């Protein structure tokens, strides 16, 4: 089916948020065009090459984007704007149907009740824009459940006393804990902590006619060879297309949201794969292009009512850019602790997510995904040789003897960590590119130190013969897990959308991605982005039914 | 040099052509086996790579894994932005070695090579004439690791040498050996 002239809904971006919204609305009968800048990229196209997987990107990124067509820039410490000459400006972010949900590590965390009320719980943090969300965990809980059941999650949080309440269990049992996980689990218990299996968007058993995981150990940064890793590309997007109401347009880049003279959206301008420009008219536009690209699109869409970009009359679009500072420790064992039973990461501890002394928030800790040979060559104890005979010996001896425990710290959002659109540089299509500036709040590094100490303690207790910390939290958070650039809020002056992701003063423009997230918690955000997709989709579906009648 | 034979010539040329991402303006090698490096450069690069990952009693090193082909190919495509850094750095290293030892780098004995490289690593080689030798050193160090430990589809890790060194087996081995382009 092809909708050439007018549709009910345009969705921009087919990742965690957009795939969900497209499906939620198309099953209700709304006509939808889902735009995706990338292509379909599955296991059969790209796989198993460490140097171009989505985590390493030494030779480009298998799951997009192409750096030559999609430059990004950054303001350096001297105030000069420089173009990144690698995919550094993307930090693992993908560009394909399903986006990061094809190549992700696929941890399926719910945020905690506390994460929605950070300001109430911890008070004002100097230099931070830390806020409460306009919705609570309980508002989002049914949508978390929907995401877990519709996308497919394996897990068991009965052993995690810090998990927020859930009405329904996970749809699939947790994965069996691997060798490393079992050793860390015992050690954590000895320390009085509460280890439990990492929830995963992976089939531990056959689920919805899809096969169970084959325990492939290199699926982080790659697609799954048997389709047992669940993303929007193998769940909601095919469902949306099957309704006959959703047309997926790949290799199309939306360049501008078109508004009338007041504040009503009329549709979007986009380029197709041959760089021809078109206008797609619609009743509603939903932006799900990621916290970076959604903000860029808003800023690049100027109108009479919004001279500084749509939704940006109070200068909040592109600000509070967060991702996740990863922090932890490494432990060397005198035996082979790794069995390379995929996907690697499978035991977690949530004891330090909240209620820590002198820490605002905190983070989850887990054993890390398996490290491949090149990545491993860059992991050494402080002061060790980074080349030569000793380096090679270490590589030979310790490839299976090294355990890494780490996790994402809850970053303190700040007004000055931001993206703007460049006045100087344009991309392949002539669209002004993203320009990053600012850095993380100073507390992020302090909080990382706190969590790294705990990670090292665990590795020592587990019997590591040598341990060292890897402390994150400096620089700017702008890579994977990007969030916060069009935050939802009740106050129009300090937020971009209302609690339903509807842009303030624009009734027919919505956001459904990580941009909405006021603070990114100490967990991987993809399940939360999917839940927000269901939340926003549900609101649109219920409140625009007149469009359906009009069509009939 | 054991590196060069007809099979490799064909392999390098075909694959190299296939991934030529940046058309135009490459300074071509004077050696038909290489896309970027000239003969003199090859000698220096091979010597550097071989100290970064040397052969030992049990397993071969960077030369055996043909890491230089990896670097050569990438300097003509994905790492093109580093190509002039390589060219200039090799010249600087040569003039340093000729001035100080009256020999080229590749003709130095192994201990001398290592001590020169340690100085490069610490950016102490010749601060007047070569302000940032560590920048180049770190690049070639990483590129050598990539060529040695990465997938053979990019030109290095011949016969999966590094996977044998790490004793990778089972499903992981199977997966790493079946990359697609």
Put the structure in a nutshell.
The complex is a heterodimer of chains A (552) and B (181). With 552 residues, chain A is α/β, with parallel strands linked by helices.
Describe the structure.
The complex is a heterodimer of chains A (552) and B (181). In chain A, the strands form three sheets. In chain A, strands 1, 2, 6, 7, 8, 9 and 17 form a seven-stranded mixed beta sheet that branches. Chain A has one domain: FAD/NAD(P)-binding domain, CATH 3.50.50.60. Chain A has 552 residues and is an alpha/beta fold. In chain A, a hairpin with a 5-residue loop joins strand 7 and strand 8 (265-271). In chain A, helix 1 (16-27) packs parallel to helix 6, helix 1 runs parallel beside helix 11 and helix 4 crosses helix 11 (526-543). In chain A, 23% of the residues lie in helices and 17% in strands. The model of chain A has no long low-confidence stretch (mean pLDDT 95). Chain A has twelve helices and 17 strands. The longest helix of chain A is centred in the C-terminal third of the chain and has 20 residues, at 442-461. By secondary structure, chain B is mainly alpha-helical. Chain B has one domain (37-176). Chain B has helices spanning 6-18, 39-52, 67-75, 83-101, 110-121, 133-149, 161-165, 170-176. In chain B, helix 3 (67-75) crosses helix 6 and helix 5 (110-121) crosses helix 6 (133-149). The radius of gyration of chain B is 17 Å and the shape is globular. The model of chain B is unreliable at 1-26 (pLDDT under 50). Classes of the chains: A alpha/beta (552), B mainly alpha (181). At the A-B interface, helix 8 and helix 9 of A face helix 5, helix 6, helix 7 and helix 8 of B.
């Amino acid at each position: 089916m092809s909708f050439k002239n007018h549709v009910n809904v345009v969705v921009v971006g087919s990742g965690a948020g957009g795939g969900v919204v497209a499906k939620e609305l198309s099953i209700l009968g709304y006509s939808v065009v889902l735009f995706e800048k990338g292509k379909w990229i599955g296991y059969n196209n790209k796989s198993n090459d460490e140097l171009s997987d989505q985590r390493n990107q030494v030779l480009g990124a298998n799951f997009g984007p192409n750096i030559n067509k999609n430059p990004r820039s950054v303001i350096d410490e001297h105030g000069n704007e420089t173009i990144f000459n690698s995919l550094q400006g993307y930090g693992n972010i993908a560009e394909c149907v399903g986006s990061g949900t094809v190549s992700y590590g696929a941890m399926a965390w719910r945020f905690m009740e506390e994460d929605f009320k950070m300001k109430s719980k911890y008070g004002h943090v100097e230099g931070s824009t830390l806020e409460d969300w306009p919705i609570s965990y309980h508002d989002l809980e049914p949508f978390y459940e929907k995401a877990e059941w519709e996308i497919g999650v394996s897990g068991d949080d009965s052993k995690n006393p810090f998990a927020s309440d859930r009405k329904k269990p996970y749809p699939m049992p947790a994965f069996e804990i691997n060798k490393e996980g079992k050793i860390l689990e015992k050690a954590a218990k000895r320390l009085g902590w509460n280890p439990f299996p990492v929830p995963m968007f992976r089939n531990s058993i056959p689920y919805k006619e899809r096969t169970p995981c084959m325990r492939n150990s290199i699926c982080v940064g790659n697609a799954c060879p048997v389709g047992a890793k669940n993303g929007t590309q193998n769940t909601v997007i095919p469902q949306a297309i099957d309704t006959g109401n959703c047309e997926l347009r790949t290799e199309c880049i939306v360049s501008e949201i078109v508004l009338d003279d007041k504040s009503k959206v009329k549709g979007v301008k986009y380029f197709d794969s041959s760089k021809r420009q078109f206008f797609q008219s619609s009743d509603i536009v939903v932006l799900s292009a990621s916290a970076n690209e959604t903000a860029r699109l808003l800023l690049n869409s100027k109108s009479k009512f919004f001279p500084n970009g749509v939704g940006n009359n109070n200068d909040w679009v592109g600000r509070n850019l967060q991702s996740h500072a990863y922090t932890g420790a490494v432990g060397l064992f005198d035996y082979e602790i790794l069995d390379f039973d995929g996907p690697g990461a499978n035991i977690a501890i949530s004891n330090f997510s909240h209620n820590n002394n002198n820490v605002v928030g905190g983070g989850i800790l887990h054993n890390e995904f398996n490290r491949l040979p090149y990545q491993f060559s860059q992991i050494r104890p402080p002061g060790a040789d980074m080349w030569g005979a000793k380096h090679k010996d270490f590589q030979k001896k310790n490839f299976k003897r090294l355990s890494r425990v780490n996790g994402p710290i809850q970053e303190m959002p700040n007004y000055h960590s931001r993206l703007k659109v460049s006045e100087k540089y344009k991309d392949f299509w002539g669209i002004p590119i993203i320009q990053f500036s600012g850095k993380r709040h100073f507390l992020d590094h302090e909080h990382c130190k706190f969590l790294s100490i705990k990670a090292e303690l665990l590795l020592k207790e587990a019997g590591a013969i040598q341990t060292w910390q890897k402390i994150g939290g400096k620089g700017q958070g702008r890579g994977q897990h990007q969030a916060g650039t069009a935050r939802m809020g009740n106050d129009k002056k300090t937020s971009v959308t209302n609690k339903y992701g509807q842009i303030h003063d624009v009734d027919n423009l919505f956001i459904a991605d990580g941009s909405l997230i006021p603070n990114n918690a100490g967990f991987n955000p993809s399940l939360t982005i999917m839940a927000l997709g269901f939340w926003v989709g549900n609101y649109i579906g219920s409140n625009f039914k007149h469009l359906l009648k009009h069509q009939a | 040099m054991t590196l060069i034979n007809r099979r490799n010539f064909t392999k390098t040329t075909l694959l190299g052509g296939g991934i030529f991402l940046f058309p135009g303006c490459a300074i071509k090698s004077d050696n038909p086996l290489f896309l970027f490096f000239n003969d003199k450069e090859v000698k220096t690069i091979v010597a550097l790579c071989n100290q970064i990952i040397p052969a030992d009693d049990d397993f071969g090193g960077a030369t055996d894994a043909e890491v230089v082909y990896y670097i050569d190919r990438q300097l003509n495509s994905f790492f093109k932005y580093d190509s002039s850094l390589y060219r200039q750095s090799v010249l600087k290293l040569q003039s340093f070695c000729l001035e100080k030892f009256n020999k080229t780098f590749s003709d130095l004995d192994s201990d001398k090579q290592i001590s020169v490289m340690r100085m490069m690593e610490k950016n102490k080689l010749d601060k007047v004439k070569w302000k940032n030798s560590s920048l180049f050193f770190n690049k070639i160090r990483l590129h050598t690791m990539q060529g040695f430990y990465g997938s053979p589809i990019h030109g290095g890790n011949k016969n999966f040498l590094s996977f044998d060194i790490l004793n990778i087996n089972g499903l992981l081995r199977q997966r790493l050996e079946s990359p697609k382009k």
